[in-house]
Specification:
about 600 residues, mainly alpha, 2 strands
């Protein structure tokens, strides 16, 4: 269990210490630790289980997607970020293959699942404690919505909601120890409470979608419904104080936030008590397998009839579903700054339609290979309809289609579909239900947001999927299904090589550059450039540390050689030309910047000053 604990520690540190940072320099040291862990386990472990064919297919698909994304740096407008994306995918591949290589029995899988649940539940409870006991809790809210510890509201919601189905799977396990089941229900309630604090509408939609998947596929759907209903009831009863910060006046905000944090802690404690009572009562009740199957089928039929009834009522109330959908889509594309709803859950405004339209345009123009890894931000700046500068397309499928084309989306499917197939196949086990629920929720939410890019979130999801993929829930691994020594040496050496040659150099380069800026000493920047020849950061640091505008210009021009479509770089160069009393050159750079980013207010203002 030590490797699982290490991976969870990485998840918690990335979420809490790094605040969910997506900057490679922040998460690469954790990737190095995971790479060292994986290579050590494979090289020095004994009786390493042989992963199933589906698991190997998923690992191969993710690895191939990482390689294809790395290759795309040749045509990407931001080569260093394309490399970072490839390393992030490699990190996810390492996370998903680690559990199958170390978990040998169902008991170990159950312990691993419990560890994930307690880790994510602990983050939720610790968040509530910070809101109650910390100084200036209002600093953790933006627009009345929680964005702590992860500084992106929807990613904060997603980290909590990923833990809901694993927690419910633990709480529903009849032969589990009552305190363990009670803790599972408490973790589910804490995670749902954090979601309400974020008021993430996308998270709610994805959670409902995952519930449909789980209840349709899971064999023990009736057993899951009881703790799910208990958790939902507790959270609904506490919904008012949990959502109060969104509408609180500035003077009342701190009080509303502390009340919300107190409510989170209280309903979590209440959930533990309720879960303990439920577990003790559940042990005394018994149904024959035949009755259990009949009740389960009846619950499925009732759910389907309820869905059909809701659909009929919906049509009766709104009339034409097509017109209603069009109106909601128009609302969805409305300016989010003019919304004045009483709750963010009923607020539709978003710029996603325009973002998605640009992603589809990029795919149509470059269908086979895309515009290159992480190239969407550059494309949006050029042809987007707003002055926003989204770096991702806010949709995992559209990101992959726009940036790596048909090849990329095929490799993504190869990496993800086998993992979901394994979760479906093992949905008779708690870890199978956890992977199916957590994975389907995350994929649904990631289809409408840029959650893929948040390493702490991605690691938790792929760890869950990896636990389910560890021998498919088939019991203790026989000696005949272990990897040979030559295979483990080759695999361990490959993991070590990736760690030392791919993860480490960019991180060391970033640290050297950071040290140069902090000490105002440019001597180490040459080493930083050699370690990471793709990065423009050493050149930006050299320009910032230059003694005069004249000496600040050459490093910026060298940075532009690497990223010639970067409007911000042209703006920086224009500033230096102006400081060096070269207005004609400054104007030329500003014109290029305006062409690459027509909505740039800074380029327009500077041109007006030069022309005036």
């Amino acid at each position: 269990m030590v490797p699982i604990a290490v991976v969870l520690a990485l998840v918690l540190a990335l979420a809490w210490r790094e605040r969910g940072s997506i900057v490679a320099a922040d998460w690469l040291p954790y990737a190095i630790l995971l790479g060292c862990l994986l290579s050590t386990v494979v090289l020095f472990g004994e009786g390493i289980p042989r992963p199933s064919r589906l698991t190997l297919a998923a690992f191969t698909g993710l690895s191939a997607l990482a390689a294809w994304t790395a290759l795309s740096l040749i045509w990407s407008p931001v080569p260093s970020l394309a490399r970072d994306e490839a390393l992030l995918i490699t990190l996810y591949a390492f996370a998903v293959i680690t559990p199958p290589l170390i978990l040998r029995s169902d008991g170990e899988r159950l312990l691993a699942l419990a560890a994930v649940v307690f880790a994510l539940g602990a983050v939720a409870v610790a968040t509530g404690a910070v809101l109650v006991l910390g100084e200036s809790p209002q600093d953790h809210f933006r627009g009345g919505r929680l964005y702590f510890p992860i500084t992106y509201v929807n990613a904060e919601a997603a980290l909590a909601l990923v833990g809901v189905w694993p927690a419910l799977a633990l709480a529903a396990r009849r032969d589990g120890a009552p305190p363990l089941r009670a803790a599972g229900l408490a973790a589910a309630v804490a995670c749902l409470a954090v979601w309400l604090l974020t008021q993430s509408a996308g998270g709610g939609v994805a959670l409902v979608g995952s519930a449909v998947v789980v209840l349709a596929v899971a064999r023990e759907r009736l057993r899951l419904l009881v703790p799910a209903a208990l958790a939902a009831a507790l959270v609904v009863l506490a919904a008012r104080p949990l959502t109060a910060p969104y509408n609180a006046a500035a003077l009342d905000l701190e009080s509303a936030i502390r009340d919300a944090g107190t409510t989170l802690l209280l309903i979590t404690a209440a959930a533990f008590v309720v879960g303990l009572v439920y577990a003790l009562v559940d042990r005394r009740l018994s149904m024959s397998p035949r009755v259990r199957r009949l009740v389960g089928r009846a619950a499925l039929v009732v759910s389907l009839l309820g869905a059909l009834g809701a659909a009929a009522a919906f049509v009766t109330l709104v009339g034409s579903p097509t017109e209603f959908a069009q109106e909601r889509w128009d609302d969805f594309g409305a300016d989010p700054e003019v919304e004045s709803e009483s709750s963010h859950f009923v607020s539709y405004g978003s710029e996603r339609p325009d973002i998605w339209s640009v992603a589809l345009t990029a795919f149509r123009e470059h269908p086979a290979a895309g515009v290159g890894g992480r190239g969407f931000g550059t494309v949006y700046a050029e042809i987007g309809d707003t002055d926003e500068h989204p770096e991702r397309a806010h949709s995992l499928p559209l990101d992959v289609l726009a940036e790596t084309g048909i090849v990329g989306i095929a490799l993504l499917a190869l990496g993800l579909v086998p993992l979901l197939a394994i979760a479906v196949r093992s949905c008779g086990t708690p870890w199978g239900v956890a992977a199916l629920g957590g994975g389907s929720y995350w994929f649904a939410h990631a289809a409408g947001d840029w959650l893929w890019t948040v390493p702490s979130l991605g690691l938790s999801v792929f760890l869950l999927l990896g636990i389910a993929a560890s021998n498919g829930g088939g019991g203790r691994v026989p000696a005949s299904r272990t990897l040979g020594r030559r295979t483990t040496i080759a695999a361990g050496a490959a993991a070590a090589a990736v760690t030392l040659l791919a993860f480490a150099p960019p991180w060391v380069s970033a640290r050297v550059t950071e040290h140069a800026l902090r000490t105002r000493d440019p001597d180490g920047l040459g080493l930083a450039r050699r370690l990471d020849p793709l990065s423009i950061s050493p050149y930006l640091a050299q320009s910032a540390l230059a003694g005069s505008p004249r000496t600040a210009i050459p490093p910026l021009r060298r940075a532009l050689e690497r990223e010639p479509r970067s409007a911000p770089l042209y703006l920086l160069l224009a500033n230096q030309y102006r400081a060096a009393s070269r207005p004609a050159d400054a104007r030329a750079q500003l014109l290029i910047a305006r062409r690459l980013d027509p909505h740039s207010e800074w380029a327009r203002t500077q041109l007006e000053q030069l022309d005036g």
